[in-house]
Amino acid sequence: MKLHDIAVNNLRRRKGKVFFLVMGLLVGVAAVVALLTTTSILEADIAHKMDEFGANILITPRSEGLSLTYGGLSLGGLSFDVKEISETDLAKIKTIENAANIRLVSPKVFGVFENQGNKALVVGVDFASELSLKKWWKINGDEPSAEQDIIVGSEAAERFQLKPGSFIDIKGEKFKVTGVLETTGSQDDGLVFMYMPVTQKLFGKEGKVGMVEVAALCKNCPISEIVTQIAEKIPSAKVTAVQQVVEGRMDTLHSFRKFSLGISGLVLFVGSMVVFVTMMGSVTERTREIGIFSAIGFRRSHIMKIILLEAFVVSLMAGVAGYLAGIGVTRLLLSFLSEHMPHFSLDPLVAVGAVFLAVVVGLLASLYPAMAASKMDPSEALRTL
Amino acid sequence: MSYITANKVVKEFGNGDARVAAVQGIDLSIEQAGFISIMGESGAGKSTLLSMLGGLLSPSRGEILIEDINIYSLKRDKLADFRREFMGFIFQSFQLVPYLNVVENVQLPLAVTHHSQANKKALAMSALERVGLQDKGHRLPNQLSGGEQERVAIARAVVNEPPILFADEPTGNLDSRNSADVMNLLKRLNADGQTIVMVTHSRHNAEYGDRIIEVADGRLKEAQAIRAVV
Q1: Residues A352-381, buried b or exposed e (16+ Cβ, 10 A)?
Q2: Domains and their CATH numbers in chain B
Q3: What value of ipTM does the predicted structure carry?
Q4: pLDDT tens by residue, A295-342
Q5: A371 contacts on B by Cβ (under 8 Å)
Q6: Does A92 touch chain B if contact means CB atoms closer than 8 Å?
Q7: Alpha-helical runs (H) found in chain B
Q8: CA distance A326 to A350
Q9: d(C-alpha A86, C-alpha A206), whole Å
Q10: What residues of B are in contact with residue A378 (Cβ under 8 Å)?
Q11: I want to staple A236 with a disulfide (CB 3.0 to 4.6 A). Which of A83, A96, A202, B106 is the partner?
C-alpha cells in the first residue's frame, strides 16, 4: 500500500467522476489540438497554393534607365546600357543553394507586331510552364500543340476578330489560334502568346530572354535569400521579389494562428475550470476520508500528493484521449474547409505537447483543491471525534 | 507515573457572545497501559476532550503532555508523525475508506512509512488475525457486517502497534453481541500493554475499563475527578 494505490483505487471507484473530469479536459485539449493542427495544415496548404498561384520572383534585364510613370500609366522612358538575359543563364537558376525551393522557371521573350493597322504585343513562352504558372487561365478552345499554334487574350481576340480555329498573319507568317483566354482583368487580355523559340526567331532574338518569372515554394524560407542567390548567379539581371504576395501570405498565416491560439486558450481555460470545480467538489465530498488520513498520521504533503496523483492520472488520460479526439476533429474540419484533403501526417511533437499541456493544466487546476484538502482540520473533518 | 497528562485544558468555540466553552479546565492524568472510560451525556464535552488528548484538536488554553512532550507545541507535520507513531484511532461509524479492501484499509497508517510492501502486508494480516478477520482481507467494507467493520477499524488502529488507542463510541453502531466481542477485543489489547482511552455512553461498556471518569458541562464530575487523578 502506497499513496498512489489510494489515488488509483479512488479513481477506479469513481468512474463517473473520472469520466466527467476526463471529458472536461479532453474537450479543451482536443480543441487545442484540432485548431492548431488544422491551422498548421491549412497554413501549409495555403502557402503551397499561394506559391503555386503565381510567380513571386521576377528576373528582368538590368538597365540604367529612367522610367516615367504616373498614376499607374506608363508615359514612356529612357533606357540605355541594357544588359539582356541570355537563355543560357536560365540553367544557373537551378544551381542556387535553395534550388529545391524553385518550383518553376518561366522565361519570356517579347515582340510587337502590326496587323490591319492594329498593334499588339507577342509574348513567347514555354506553354507547359506558363499554363502551370497561371492556373487561373481559362482557355476557350485548345492549348497550343504545334509550333505555329498561338493563344490570344480576350481583348486581342476582339481587336483582330479572332476565335478558336482562326488564322492570323504575324510578321509574314501564318499562325493558328487554338484558344482564346477568358477575360482575366490583367495585361494578359491584350497579348498574343506563342512558343518562345518561334517568337525568338520571328523577332530576331535567338538566345535572348526578355523576362523570367520564377515561382518559389517558400513556406518558412526567406524569399529574399533566394532573390540574393539568383542575383549572384546572374549578375547581369535585376532580381526582385513580389513583396505584395509574400507579405500578404504572411499576414494571412499570422491571422490564422492568432485566431486559433485565442480560441484554444479560451477552451482550455473553460476545461481547467471544469477540473477545478470538479476537484473542489471531490475534495468536499471526501472531507471525512481526508480527515481519516490526517488523523492516522498523513502529513499535508501526503494528502496533497494523493489529490495531485489523481489529477495527474486523469490529466494523462485526458491528454491522450484529447489528442486522438483532436486529430479526429481535424480530419473532419479539413474535409469541410478544404476541397481536397491536404497532406496530413501525425506529428509526435503535437502528441507529446497535448499530453504535457493536459497534465500541466490538470495539475494547476487541482493545486488549490489539493491545498485545501491538506489544510483540513482532522477534527472538523471527522466531526465525530 | 503519568503517561498522558491534561493540564487545565480549556476548549472554546466561537467568538464574543456566541462563545461556548466545551471543555472548562480539565486536569487529567492517565497511566501507561491503563484503560480509561470517559462517560457523559451528549454535548458534555467528552468527544472534544478525546480529540484534544488525541492530538486532533488544539486546546484554547492548557496543555496536553504525552511522554512529557507538549504535543501542541509540535508543528503540524511533526504532530502528524507523532499521531502515526504513538496513537491509533477507532472512530464512531467505523470510518473505513469505501474503495479500499479490508487489507488495504488496515494498511493505511503504513502507507507513508518506509516498510517494504511485503512487510506492510504481513503487518496488516497479523492485525487482521488479532481481530479474527484474516479470511476477509479482499472484501470491501460494504461487504462486511457492522461488527466486522468495527473490527477492521480496530485492526487499522493497531497495525503499527501504537502505544495509545483512542476509541470514540466503538460500539455505538453495533448490537449487543458484536459490542461484547469488540469490548473483549479492546480488553485483550489493553492486556497486551496498550493504553486505551475510550468514550462511551454505555455504563456496561465503561466498566471494561479499569477507570471511569464522567464529564458534565465540560468539567470532570467532582468525585470521578478525584478518582481519575489518584
Answers
A1: ebbbebbbebbbebbbebbebbbebebbeb
A2: 32-55+73-225 (3.40.50.300)
A3: 0.89
A4: 999 999 999 999 999 999 999 999 999 999 999 998 888 887 766 666
A5: none
A6: no
A7: 46-53, 76-86, 102-107, 117-130, 146-158, 176-191, 203-206, 222-229
A8: 10
A9: 9
A10: 56
A11: A83
Q: Is A274 helix (H, G, I), strand (E, B) or coil?
A: helix
Question: Residue B114, class by beta-carbon neighbours within 10 Å (0-12 exposed, 13-18 middle, 19+ buried)?
Answer: exposed
Q: Is A382 in contact with B109 (Cβ distance < 8 A)?
A: no
d(C-alpha B215, C-alpha B225), whole Å: 9
Of A304, A262, A234, the C-alpha closest to A62 is A234
Q: Which residue intervals of B13-139 are DSSP H helices?
A: 46-53, 76-86, 102-107, 117-130
Instruction: Show the cell assigned to B15.
Output: 467568538
Residue A276: C-alpha distances to residues A7, A14, A22, A311, A363 (Å): 17, 17, 12, 10, 9
> How far is it, in rounded angstroms, from Cα B69 to Cα B47?
22
CB neighbourhood size of B86 (10 A): 20
Q: Which residue of A has its CA nearest to B13?
A: A380
pLDDT for A26-78, tens place per residue?
988 998 888 888 877 877 776 666 655 555 788 888 765 545 444 444 444 44
User: To the nearest whole number, what is the mean pLDDT of chain B?
Assistant: 88
